[in-house]
Prior knowledge:
Helix content of chain B: under 10%
Mean pLDDT of chain B: 96
Distance between the termini of chain A: 28 Å
Oligomer: heterodimer
Strand content of chain A: over 45%
Number of strands of chain A: 9
Strand content of chain B: over 45%
Largest sheet of chain B: 7 strands, mixed
Number of strands of chain B: 11
Order of helices and strands of chain B: EEEEEEEEEEE
Radius of gyration of chain A: 13 Å
Low-confidence stretches of chain A: none
Mean pLDDT of chain A: 97
Amino acid sequence: QSVLTQPPSASGTPGQTVTISCSGSSSNIGNNTVNWYQKVPGTAPKLLIYSNNQRPSGVPDRFSGSKSGTSASLAISGLQSENEADYYCAVWDDRLNGLVFGGGTKLTVL
Amino acid sequence: EVQLLESGGGLVQPGGSLRLSCAASGFTFSVYAMSWVRQAPGKGLEWVSGISDRGDSTFYTDSVKGRFTISKDISRNTLYLHMSNLRAEDTALYYCAKARLYTMPGGGFDSWGQGILITVSS
């Protein structure tokens, strides 16, 4: 049971916009910045968003992040079949003095 | 190009010990924090441990405190994870990850190794 709550699954059709939520508390999201990762089975995780809403070079602007209070969201616009993957939020937790990942959201492109 | 290459994995009996290594290249190893992240079969990502740029600050998830030790050998550009008193629930693919920043939490992990499998079983 993670301290960060993500929906276990999400889906959309090509071209749609999908949003994945990540809910936490004052000791993590409420006080620290959120990062998002994409995990395709059989490959290493990839950093998609850092510092709530910043994209590393090479990440398309179809991926965007936001944070409000103790929740964060990842939005993927112009959905493509290659976006099928597991998505994880991650943030430092001041109470645990460690990093925590959300449980992950499996995105299916219908 | 940043490269992270893990080694030292394998099958170990419950209660046993193992040392993972992560050979780093393509960046100034002494300037960035590093971490180990694992993924158990069929499960999500779990952060295990982190270390600051110079190695003077270390952090652990509760389930491994007192059993795992993270360290950096800057002269060898290598990150280590010493694991002892291993349990079945430690079975996972372990990733070495480079932080974007010099200190934990690190601002996100922008480079990852391919992972090394640890299986704890009798």
